[in-house]
Amino acid sequence: MKILIIDDEELLVKGISFNLENEGYQVVTGSNGAEAVQLAQDPEVGLIVLDVMMPVMDGLETCRRIRQFSSVPIIMLTAKTEDMDKLMGFEYGADDYLTKPFNILELKARIRAILRRSVKQEAQPRIVRGPIALDSQSRNAYKDGVPVDLTAKEFDLVELLIRNPNRVYSRENLLDIIWGDDYRSDIRTVDVHIRRIREKLENRPASPEYIMTKWGVGYYFKV
């Protein structure tokens, strides 16, 4: 997941970037609205953290322009506390609002919540990729038309990957999105689930065709 951070406070940007990169996210930064509009056109950007008070173009106008070509989640940052400012942010297309100064843990929690919510909202009831089919409403999985018994987390993991083909997710990203604040394990939890999924869905689990590994990075669904 690539996250775009736009703010003219250099120290704040460095702090946010450091914390998000430690969580396994890719981070791209800018310092004004014009840069934000340009960088937001990258199709790999999955979420934007956008300051309201910026030079060249303020965050509200920047948000409005980004919404003309992109629906990626946007979290607005501001030093203002008036409700009207927040309402304007939502009116221009923001998904969430955080008032400075804020705790970085809260920002990370908001990011995880928005990403989980956006995955659910974008999901269509049924999707088919090659021999694999998923039905989100019944939470049933099929291989070549034959039902496959997946656990709840296995289903969630497959659904995320299959609905975002060729997008590589780090183990840390997958823990955040699938397990959220509930997990009390390490990144090997993801590896174990991927191995079990391959045993159930791949013809040759040792040489997978669909649930692929990007060595040193993470996992993705190949199409």
User: What is the CATH homology-level superfamily of the largest domain?
Assistant: Response regulator
Derived structural class: alpha/beta
Provide the CATH architecture of the largest domain: 3-Layer(aba) Sandwich
Number of strands: 12
What general form does the structure show? elongated
Q: Write the CATH fold name of the largest domain.
A: Rossmann fold
Element pattern in H and E? EHEHEHEHEHEEEEHEHHEE
Short summary:
With 223 residues, the protein is of the alpha/beta class.
What does this structure look like?
By secondary structure, the chain is an alpha/beta fold. Helix content is 41%, strand content 23%. The protein has 8 helices and 12 strands. A 5-stranded parallel beta sheet has the order 2-1-3-4-5, sandwiched between helices. The protein has a 4-stranded antiparallel beta sheet with strand order 6-7-8-9, covered by helices on one side. A 3-stranded antiparallel beta sheet has the order 10-12-11. Strand 1, helix 1 (10-22) and strand 2 form a beta-alpha-beta unit. The longest helix is centred in the middle third of the chain and has 19 residues, at 104-122.
Question: What characteristics describe this protein?
Answer:
alpha/beta, 223 residues, Arc Repressor Mutant, subunit A, 23% strand, 4-stranded antiparallel sheet, 12 strands, 5-stranded parallel sheet, single chain, 2 domains
